[in-house]
Amino acid sequence: MHWEVVVSDNGSMDGTRDVALGFADRLDIQVIDSSSEPGRAFACNEGARAARSDALCFLDADDEVAPGYVIAMIEALRVHPFVAARVDVGLNSGWVARTRDPFQHDGLLDVFGYLPFGLGCTLGVRREVFQSVGGFSSQVPFDEDVDFCWRVQQTGVPMTFIPEAVVRYRFRDSMWGLFSQTVHYGAGQVLLYRCHRSRGMPRRTRQMLRAELSKRVRTLLAVRDKGDLARWVHETGYLIGHVVGSVRWRTLYL
Predict the structure, then answer these.
(1) Which tens digit of pLDDT belongs to each residue from 231-250?
(2) For the chain, is the Cβ count within 10 Å smaller at the N or the C terminus?
(3) What is the chain's Cα-based Rg?
(4) Closest by alpha carbon to 103, among 185, 161, 180, 178?
(5) For 143-172, what is each residue's pLDDT tens digit?
(6) What is the rounded CA–CA span in Å between residue 61 and residue 74?
(7) Does the reported pTM lie above 0.90?
(8) Contacts of 40 (CB under 8 A, 6+ apart)
(9) What is the torsional sign of CA 23, 34, 39, 49?
(10) Beta strands in 34-89 (DSSP E)
C-alpha cells in the first residue's frame, strides 16, 4: 500500500523542514512552503494541493497517530467520502491531563445543537469532496475545521466516525496557552454562528449563559490545585472568546 506525507510548513522556526526531510530515505515525503499566508486553513489547502492522492488525511504537528492509523483511514475512505478518526488523550499527564474530559472517543462531536463535526487533525476526505467546497476557509479562523465539516455535510455528504483510526491529541501545557487557545476558539464560534445561522445553527440562549456563568463561579470556588485551575481557565476562555467575537463581528452569541 503506497502513501505519501506532505509537510505544509506555515512559517515554522524550529527546524521542521530539516527534521521532515530526514525521513526521506524511509518515506515518500515532501515539504512545501505555505508561509505566504498564516493560519491552519491555508496550510492545509496548500498541502492538499501538493498531494498526489485522491484520499486526503489531515494531521497537526503536535499530535501523533497510533499504529494502524494509515490503513484504517485508507480503508474507510474507500467506503465513505468523509471521515473522522477517534481521539486519544493519553499523551497528556499530570495537571495537563485534567484540563478537559476525553472527547471524540466514542463518536463525532456535537456541541452546537446543529451538525456533528470532528477535530481538524482527525479528518479524512476524498479529494473531489474537498474541492467541491473549496477546502478550508481562511475566513473562519480557529474553527475552520468545524466550518469545513458543516459545509461538506450541507452538500449532502455524510460524515462517518472511524474508531479504528486513532489520533493521539496533545493538550496545551501552559496556562496562557490554554487560555489563549480557548479565547480564540470561543471568538471563532461567533463567526461560525454568523456564517451558519441561516442554515439552522441556533444562537445560545440567556438560560445557557446563566447556567455557564453559575458553573464557572462554582468551579472557581472549588479550585484546590493547578489541575482544577487549568480546567477553569480552559473553560472560561470560551466565554471570554464569545464576548470578544460578538464585539469583533457585531454578532450576538453569548
Answers:
(1) 999 999 999 999 999 999 99
(2) N
(3) 19
(4) 161
(5) 999 999 999 999 999 999 999 999 999 999
(6) 20
(7) yes
(8) 10, 60, 120, 136, 144
(9) negative
(10) 55-57, 64-65, 82-88
